[in-house]
Queue: 2 jobs
Job 1
Amino acid sequence: KMTTAELEGKVLTIKRKLGSKLFIPCHHYQKDEVVQFADATGDSLKLAQLSEENKEAEHIVFCGVHFMAETADILTKENQKVHLPDMRAGCSMADMADMHQTERAWEKLEKIFGETILPLTYVNSTAAIKSFVGQHGGATVTSSNAEKMLKWAFEQKPRILFLPDQHLGRNTAYDLGIGLDEMAVWNPINDELEYDGPVEKIKVILWKGHCSVHENFNVKNIEDVRSNYPEMKIIVHPECTREVVALSDMAGSTNYIIEAIKHAEKGSSWAIGTEMNLVNRIIQQHPDKHIISLNPHMCPCLTMNRIDLPHLAWCLESIDQGESNNIIDVDKKDAQFAKLALEKMLARV
Ligand code: 13P
Ligand code: SF4
């Protein structure tokens, strides 16, 4: 078993050796032991943009989760290889919408709504789902452009199917002035539309998926902060429920949260509702501010955390030896249509 120092030494040596042939993008939720070696850090949008722009690196070692690495593979050139240091780094939300469920849903929804519906998918979805959306004229969204993309979608069709995160979908639609009574939920487990009123009234159909990390922030956490620290501002990710976002002071993507705290007044105090590694990093970077996690039982994303220093070192070692087993290679047909959906988004941000 190698020590931390040996593993770090290995990563540094291979990084130096490969130079600009190697690119290591890192999502903000990654562990510090990995982030220290990042060539770039970012939210989902920035990491997608960087993948598209990078023409130089032969090997992109993606420190994030599977759907992000797939996006990088789709947006990079044929001769660029994308590696995921641990192939088990999935995303429970992305897994909540599979192709069979989506095809069944679409068939039923088309029966109800005919041609009046357009699919949109959060980038936190498989390449196959992005491809489905691309084939049906839709686009992807991230947490930092969801509002812009939903507006665009309503210029195309009067109704939107939003996959797979009901909370981001609901929070974004609400901000655009759509009433909660104009939003239905599609339940992919029993193939049913959950809605009380007349279907003609529906403007958004929310796929019944969620993030298991952001679901851990609740109204009780907010009430506790409000009573213990009345002056504290609460900032959360829009993957949190509608109730939590409504009771918070601000909501936005990981990048939005980072920027908000960076520009906040010295001495100000904040409760943050997002993944633990990022919250801890923000706390460390701002000793002049009082910052806590909105949920005192810090919430980790277990799959993001699968990427650790040993996996990064092993992945780089295998690349160096020309035998990587961790290559993400999206099916060609899926990649073609998923790219359409991604490009519609990238052209508008
Ligand atoms: P962003 O970094 O785009 O806000 O995404 C958060 C997230 O949950 C990624 O999985
Ligand atoms: Fe998926 Fe949530 Fe983890 Fe992001 S934080 S990768 S949405 S499970």
Job 2
Amino acid sequence: MANELRFDGRVAIVTGAGGGLGRAHALLLASRGAKVIVNDLGGSMHGGGKNSAAADSVVEEIKAAGGEAAANYDSVEEGGRIVQAALDHFGRIDIVINNAGILRDVSFHKMTEEDWDLIYRVHVLGSFRVTHAAWPHLRDQGYGRIVMTASAAGIYGNFGQANYSMAKLGLVGFANTLALEGKKRNVLVNTIAPLAGSRLTETVLPKEIIDNLKPDYVSPLCAYLVHESCTDNGGLFEVGGGFFAKLRWERAEGATLRLGRPFTVEQIAARWGEISGFEKASHPANIAESMQPVMTNLEAGPSKGGNDLIDVDLALGY
Ligand code: NAI
């Protein structure tokens, strides 16, 4: 195909690529010329056991289709070994897709510290360890593309998933800062919040829905994010079932009270509409933009007159 986006010469690590979304990502990248480390611990969806069969079968699929891949069976908690496998097999590393994941769903009042900790270790610590080991290689070569895998459960909350929600939104914050730190060296970091039928979702979604949420429907957006032509950085994307969209923060108009005197609960109550209403929303995209109203208020300085809200608005030019 003309203008096909290809990955020839690129080496990709896809964690948790023995099934579900990771498998689909790995197959797509390999079909476009990437050499792929197919990592999978091969355990249960709740984090128990291990088995090399899952990663092996995806490597076989890739090879049967004429692609290049090697299996790795380490847990993402041993991220350094996964990166070493990429260097040993293919001599470099360009792309990291942090995808491995498990669930320990239980309502919070029944959640144990082990449920909390295990989810943190696989999703957050695992993504940290793999990315941290790859980072110096990506920086030094002045090229890298990284994807984190978040979830709607983290963005919006989901009953029974306090541990998973914590981990998944934690990855968004992690990616936000990596995106800033990596940018100068052309190491770009984005996050997807996918929706797909897999063993993680087949127990909670009806079969007819699962059948229309193919992991293959998610991988093209993920692959675009790790392609050299994509310059998006620090983005968060919802993707699944044929829908693709970027998300961003929205901030209410907000209220500003002049400094130099105590603020009262009643003032907050009086301004609640501006503090919490989104009719005049803005979309701060970085810390400087987010701090802008505070800086304006600091520049205006302490109030000289009485504690009058109208006086505040006039002084600040609102
Ligand atoms: P899946 O269970 O089919 O695939 C996850 C893979 O990760 C499995 O093959 C598993 O063996 C592997 N894995 C688990 N722990 C590992 C570890 N410590 N080290 C290495 N590999 C490990 O699930 P699915 O749905 O494909 O999930 C992929 C990612 O997408 C996960 O991070 C999940 O949380 C996330 N996600 C999936 C959604 C969906 O609708 N399927 C929704 C939101 C997020």
